[in-house]
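Sequence in, structure out.
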Amino acid sequence: MTNQLQQLAENARSHAYVPYSTFQVGASLETEDGTLYSGCNIENASYGLTNCAERTAIFKAMSEGHRKIKKLYVTADTKGPVSPCGACRQVIAEFMDQDGEVILANVNGEKHSVTIQQLLPGAFGAGDMMNKNNQFKSGFVSLIGRPNAGKSTLLNQVIGQKIAIMSDKPQTTRNKIQAVYTTENEQLVFLDTPGVHKPKHKLGEFMVNQALDTLKEVDVVLFFIDVAEPFGKGEEFILESLKKIQTPVFLVMNKIDKVHPEQLLERIEEYRHHYDFKEIIPISALEGQNVPVLVENLVKYMPEGPQYYPDEQITDHPERFIIAELIREKVLYHTRDEIPHSVAVVIDQVKERPDRKTYVQATIVVERNSQKGIVIGKRGAMLKQVGQEARKDIRKLLGTDVFLELWVKVQKDWRNKARFLNEQGYSNRE
């Protein structure tokens, strides 16, 4: 029966709809009466709507009246046996008895058989099931603060790879970027939120709502400040919001490399008068100073729990989103004050060519014709420079040679058009 399940899973994998990640997964299962079902993973541009292969197969069986699974087989093009995500583990546990068998495999024929007890609440790696003598800790962390406080810089420093846009312009982070830090004994999931500011348009309202909503979703809130900047109405607004929640709050005082130690002590005392922080940790996110201390303290506040993401996963965003952010970062850097926030990037196509180069086609969207001219530059010089620099970062991200084709399009007043914002993922609907 295992050979039959393997054939079904491999066939299902070939039908996977994965235009964004190109990561094909196939699954098959045997129900209590011996009926066989299979499924593949199906992606959507709205990443949260993606469905895994395991759940596709299980839902097919359940929709035909079955309620028990005897055996499940999962395969993918991975270095070792693939492993189900946290959501799939919960669904498998719902419909499989404790003596059921889950076979984790890859296309090279490697297999690893586990029980549902081993999958929950164990670690993701099939060869690294959690030692029962170890206490695995996991949880969610929200980074909140005024624009340009350095939150994205910290996130990239902790993860060790660029996944959040960095710029000297405020309000550059638009979506909650979920970053994942994993070690043998713990996993921290970070939400890097848009900077809190007084909204001037619908995009601004979305960004502020995103920032405040994360306070309800996490185990610890990091209130991020630029220690070189004076306390103001922005900080006061955030602290008033924090007083309404029960979540532990750390004060993270960033950019300590820019101030004298005596000034730092004065700022610490100033903030202590405004809020009872669980921890106060001065850091330099850019230099990495005290960042390990911050991570160590975060782990202390995390509950025991499952590993939500695989060891190798550092973000829940598809590659298309990160590619778009890398391009937007270069546009913001080179256009400076001329196009502060009137730019979006749409990824039109990502395709691997026969010569093993990855072809990326993207459109830079601006609000006015004059801005289009600035982005293109004299004889296309600006667009060429943006493309050259973005290509280097995209190559590091994908690990392949990249052919990047950029276009510039005018979409008048796009930041106030709800339909365009929804298409780009800026929506408050869950």
